UniProtKB/TrEMBL annotation:
Composition bias type Polar residues, residue spans: 1-11
Protein name: MoaB/Mog domain-containing protein
Domain MoaB/Mog: 38-218
Organism from which the protein derives: Kwoniella dendrophila CBS 6074
Region feature Disordered, mapped onto this chain: 1-28
GO molecular function terms listed in the Swiss-Prot or TrEMBL record: FAD diphosphatase activity
PANTHER family, alphabetized: MOLYBDOPTERIN BINDING DOMAIN PROTEIN (AFU_ORTHOLOGUE AFUA_5G11210)
Segment forming the signal sequence: none
Length: 308
C-alpha cells in the first residue's frame, strides 16, 4: 500500500488559511464531549511486518493526555469488508475514532472508498483540496504535474476523492477540515466521530495535534487523578495485595494498575476522580508495598516522575 508524499517544507511554498475552528460545530451535539476513543490502523504492510506501526502509540498518548479513554486499537488489512465492519462497530461504541493509512494514489489505497460504503456516502472530488494541492506544491512539482500523463494526474486527484454528504441525515455527515495552513491534506470527519488520517507518522502526528481545536474535548474537571507509586519489590510479591485492593475499590470507580520494569521494580498506578480518596489509597499502597510516590496529578498533567 502506498502512502501520499509529504509536501516540500520550503519557505517558497505558500501557506493557506486553515478551517476556522469557530465555524465547526460540536459534532457530538452542544454540551457533549469525547469520553471514549478507538483507533483503526489500516494496511497490509503493517500486518506483514514491512511497516512498524507507531501511530497507534502516538494516538494512545494523545488520548491519555487529554483525559480520553482509549478503548480499542485494531490493525486490519486493506480490505473493504474489514474496514466497513470496523468503522461501523467502533463509531457505534465510541465518541472519537481515527483511521490511519490507505489514502494514497494507488489501487490498494481504498480507505476513502471503503468508508464511503460504511457511511452510505458517495465519493466526490473536493475542489478545495485539489486547489490546495496545486497552491502548496513547489514550482518544480507544479511543472511536473502540468506535463504528467493524464493517468498520473488522475491518480494524484484520487487523494481528494472523499465520501461526501448525500443529504441531511446527520449520521452520514461528512466534514472536510483543513487543520494546517501548510498542508493540503485535510482531516475528513464522518458521522461526527470518525476522522481519517494518512499513515505517514509525521503527517499523522502533525494533523492529529492540529485537529485538537476542532474536537469537543473533556473539561479539565473531568480528567481523572492519578497516583503513581514505585516499589523495588517484584510484582509477584505485591500481586495478592493489589488483587484484593482492586476488588475492594472497583465499585468506587478506581482502577489499579501494575507495570513492572525488568529487574528494577514495579510502578503501581491508581486512577480515579475522587482526588482525596485516591491519595488516601496511595498512602495505603506506599505502606503495603514499601514504596514511594513518584508522580501525581490530573491525567496528562502529572509532575515529573522520579528516576528509579
Amino acid at each position: 500500500m502506498s502512502t501520499q508524499p509529504q509536501l516540500n517544507p520550503s519557505a517558497s511554498v505558500a501557506k493557506l488559511s486553515p478551517t476556522d475552528p469557530s465555524n465547526v460545530p460540536n459534532p457530538l451535539g452542544e454540551g457533549n464531549y469525547i469520553k471514549t476513543a478507538g483507533c483503526i490502523i489500516i494496511g497490509d504492510e503493517v500486518l506483514n511486518g514491512k511497516t512498524k506501526d507507531t501511530n497507534s502509540n502516538f494516538f494512545a498518548q494523545f488520548c491519555f493526555d487529554l483525559g480520553i479513554e482509549l478503548k480499542r486499537i485494531e490493525v486490519i488489512a486493506d480490505d473493504e469488508e474489514e474496514i466497513v465492519e470496523a468503522a461501523r462497530r467502533m463509531t457505534s461504541q465510541y465518541d472519537f475514532v481515527v483511521t490511519s493509512g490507505g489514502i494514497g494514489p494507488t489501487h490498494d489505497d481504498i480507505t476513502y472508498a471503503s468508508l464511503g460504503v460504511a457511511f452510505n456516502l458517495p465519493l466526490k472530488h473536493d475542489q478545495e483540496t485539489i486547489r490546495r494541492m496545486h497552491e502548496l506544491a513547489t514550482p518544480q512539482r507544479r511543472e511536473e504535474l502540468k506535463n504528467a500523463p493524464q493517468a498520473q494526474r488522475e491518480a494524484r486527484e484520487r487523494m481528494a476523492l472523499f465520501p461526501t454528504n448525500s443529504g441531511s441525515d446527520g449520521q452520514n455527515k461528512s466534514e472536510i477540515i483543513f487543520v494546517e495552513g501548510d498542508k493540503w491534506v485535510p482531516v475528513v470527519r464522518l458521522g461526527g466521530k470518525l476522522c481519517i488520517f494518512p499513515g505517514i507518522p509525521s503527517l499523522f502526528q502533525q494533523l492529529l495535534l492540529a485537529l485538537t481545536p476542532y474536537l469537543p474535548l473533556p473539561p479539565a474537571s473531568s480528567k481523572p487523578f492519578r497516583h503513581l507509586i514505585y516499589t523495588s519489590k517484584p510484582e509477584s510479591a505485591i500481586a495478592p495485595y493489589l488483587t484484593e485492593l482492586q476488588a475492594r475499590v472497583k465499585k468506587e470507580g478506581i482502577r489499579i494498575g501494575s507495570y513492572p520494569y525488568l529487574y528494577s521494580g514495579v510502578h503501581v498506578s491508581l486512577i480515579g476522580h475522587d482526588v482525596e480518596r485516591v491519595r488516601e489509597l496511595g498512602q495505603e499502597v506506599v505502606k503495603e508495598v514499601d514504596g514511594k510516590v513518584v508522580s501525581e496529578g490530573k491525567l496528562g498533567n502529572e509532575g515529573e516522575k522520579a528516576k528509579v
